[in-house]
Specification:
By secondary structure, the protein is mostly helical. The chain has a single domain (11-113), classed as Serine Threonine Protein Phosphatase 5, Tetratricopeptide repeat. Helix content is 41%, strand content 7%. The protein is built from six helices and two strands. It has helices at 11-20, 23-27, 31-38, 48-54, 78-84, 88-97; strands at 101-104, 110-113. A two-stranded antiparallel sheet has the order 1-2. 29% of the residues are buried. It holds the Pfam family Ank_2.
Amino acid sequence: MEAMEIDVPKQEDLFRAAEKGDAALFSSLGEEALHRARSMRNEDGRSLLHVAASSGHPEATDPSVSGVNSKDEEGWAPLHSAASIGNVQIVEMLLDRGEFLIVLHKSWHLDLQL
């Protein structure tokens, strides 16, 4: 018997879903697809979690998709993205799920990051 092929969303579809807050797409991913999604980065080095956080979608802000402490090309974590748009709900979610780290950004500012 042949193994069934499961449709796995393309990278651009996953980033579009993160931007639009489509949490259902992420919850439908199997373990292998979720594992691949964790390492995806867009042209700016941003993870799916960065995109969801900066787009203001708490329903799609799931650290299991990509780590709370992942950094983009500018050294920003998803926490910085959420804070930059003033979304307290996402900031609190990320703080609740994160780990404390001290990060020295390229701009030489010291931030406490979770």
